[in-house]
Write a structure and sequence with these properties.
Blueprint: H1 13-29, E1 48-53, H2 59-70, E2 74-79, H3 91-98, E3 104-108, H4 112-121, E4 126-130, H5 136-150, E5 157-161, H6 166-178, E6 181-185, H7 194-200, E7 204-207, H8 210-214, E8 219-222, H9 233-239, H10 247-250, E9 258-261, H11 273-276, H12 283-301
Parallel strand pairs: 1-2, 1-3, 3-4, 5-6, 5-8, 6-7, 8-9
Helix pairs in contact: 1-12, 2-12, 3-4, 5-12, 6-7
């Protein structure tokens, strides 16, 4: 059976825990190594990963490229506009062709349904590297970072402040799987999808008050208020004005709380310089951990 990594809510807790543990182990095993050296077990030896981008990328592009190389494989990178996919070829036809040319496909897409359509006919693993509805690889890197700095995430309280977007959705998916409490603070017009909130169950608390969400939290997380493709910039800035994470809001969290942001950050909007560059910020570890988390995802996809 082909192993796709499309959404956190699709996988059982045991599998997700195993992937995260593997990410920790792979990072620890490479301590002090040059970044280009291949992991000892080389689970992607002789394998090729196709990387398809419909959206611009820094962290996703570099981290997946580094990940497949460290696993012993290689990558072919293409923008959708460079492919027949960008000229109207059905997603399913592209999936059938690439299934015969490469060993796995990573897609950073506009429409989540396109990734699902691709996976339905693909005979090789498909990894969701971001869609309009979820960002599961990011959340694994985030949970890895939390555990590095604050121990097991189970039983912890995480506070999400800002837009109920795709990253927020994947945190909601992860809460019952990993056993943490997630407080989500966002304006009523920008709350998470109701189906996602149902998936989170009693592990998720929704509020419009940032201070309520952050009170006593072990982790504070935010993201940009305006994502790629959003056309309502001014309206969003006005709606989220009270949702910026600054030093005053961080003081409402636990004294040893850490701050996460998937980046890129709009300094002075969703987060202040004092927080992003401050001692509680672990965003640079978080960015690096995209490599290690995605290596564990790919290794699992290849049967590890």
């Amino acid at each position: 059976m082909v192993r796709h990594f499309l959404d956190i809510h699709r996988l059982d807790a045991e599998t997700l825990r195993a992937i995260l543990d593997d990410a920790h182990a792979r990072k620890a095993a490479r301590k002090g190594w040059p970044k280009g050296r291949v992991d000892a077990d080389a689970p992607a030896k002789d394998r090729v990963l196709a990387m398809i981008f419909e959206k611009n990328s820094t962290r996703t592009r570099f981290s997946f490229d580094a990940a497949i190389r460290q696993l012993g494989g290689d990558a072919i990178i293409a923008n959708a506009a460079d492919m027949q996919l960008g000229r109207g070829e059905p997603v399913e036809d592209t999936a059938r062709v690439l299934s015969r040319m490469v060993d796995a496909v990573m897609i950073r897409a506009n429409d989540h349904e396109d990734v699902e359509r691709f996976a339905r006919v693909s005979t090789i693993p498909v990894v969701n590297a971001l869609t309009d509805r979820s960002h599961p690889c990011q959340i694994l890197a985030d949970l890895m970072t939390i555990e590095e700095h604050r121990g097991p995430v189970a039983g912890k309280t995480l506070a999400w402040v800002g837009d109920g977007n795709n990253v927020c959705a994947s945190f909601i998916h992860a809460a019952p799987k990993f056993g943490f409490q997630l407080n989500v603070a966002c304006p009523s017009d920008y709350h998470p999808d109701l189906h996602d909130l149902q998936r989170g169950g009693n592990h998720v608390h929704l509020t419009s008050d940032p201070e309520e969400a952050v009170a006593g939290a072990d982790v504070v997380v935010t993201d940009t208020w305006v994502s790629m493709g959003d056309q309502d910039y001014e309206e969003r800035l006005a709606a989220f004005e009270a949702y910026g994470v600054d030093a005053a809001l961080m003081k409402q969290a636990a004294a040893d709380a850490v701050f996460l942001h998937c980046l890129p950050a709009h300094r002075g909007e969703e987060v202040s310089d004092a927080v992003l560059d401050g001692p509680q910020s672990v965003v640079w570890d978080e960015a690096e951990n995209r490599i290690h988390a995605q290596k564990a995802v790919l290794a699992w996809c290849f049967g590890g």
